[in-house]
TrEMBL record:
InterPro entries, sorted: OMP/PagP_B-barrel, OMPW
Residues spanning the membrane: none
Source organism superkingdom: Bacteria
Pfam families according to UniProt: OmpW
Signal peptide: 1-22
Alphabetical UniProt keywords: Signal
Family per record: Belongs to the OmpW/AlkL family.
Annotated protein name in UniProt: OmpW family outer membrane protein
Length: 217
């Protein structure tokens, strides 16, 4: 939590620095053809709490727990019309997978995930001081560089999910914006443990929350 707070504070300081460098210029307007590039600190917060069962489907008494992670990401928002924009985010996070239940709490796997999300946004007041937006789109969860732990072998399936989004840009000064953003992604994956001796249908369904500094082009 201390690391997260420090990172968020650093992003806020960058916003202040950007505003100062713009010398209090009037905010630059955006419209069709504009691009906003946003450097963010992003948290991917899975909501998994699914049962682990045997190959025959019997309840093992254990559940899946997937840890949170915070990492820098980049967002690219392109205005296809004055009030409509397409956003793509790029970044990767690392998550620990644990099996929990009763007196058991053991790490079974650690993996990186690349969760690009592409959304179509509606921005009713893109040039207001505070410009809110909503969006909807798709995500693709790709797991890589997995590391098994404590004698377990874990396989996770990649796949697509759907996403809803809400956020706002604060048009600070000149080309600079301060951004807050939240996405809810619905994504399920099948996890196979020790060659399928244990398995789980995992609803990761992460919240993807961000704060950052953007620049208009």
């Amino acid at each position: 939590m201390k690391t997260t707070a420090a990172l968020i504070a650093s992003v806020s300081l960058l916003a202040v620095a950007g505003a100062a460098s713009a010398q209090n210029a009037a905010p630059e307007p955006v419209g069709k053809g504009s691009l906003i590039v946003t450097a963010r600190m992003t948290g991917v917060l899975p909501q998994a709490d699914d049962a682990i069962v045997t190959a025959a489907g019997a309840d093992s008494g254990l559940k899946v727990d997937v840890g949170d992670d915070w990492m820098p990401t980049l967002g690219f928002t392109y205005f296809v019309a004055d009030h409509w924009a397409v956003e793509a985010i790029l970044g990767a996070t690392q998550h620990e997978v644990r099996a929990k239940g009763g007196a058991t709490d053991v790490a079974v796997h650690e993996t990186w995930v690349l969760p690009p999300v592409v959304t179509l946004q509606y921005r009713p007041t893109p040039n207001a001081t505070v410009s809110p937006y909503v969006g909807a789109g798709v995500s693709y969860m790709a797991f890589f560089s997995g590391k098994d732990k404590n004698g377990f072998e874990v396989d996770l399936d990649n796949g697509f999910g759907v996403a809803l989004q809400a956020g706002a840009d604060w048009n600070i000064s000149g080309p600079w914006t301060l951004n807050v953003d939240a996405k809810k992604v619905w994504f399920d994956t099948d996890a196979r443990i020790n060659g399928g001796a244990l398995k789980s249908s995992v609803s990761l369904d992460p919240w993807v929350v961000s704060v950052g500094v953007g620049r208009k082009f």
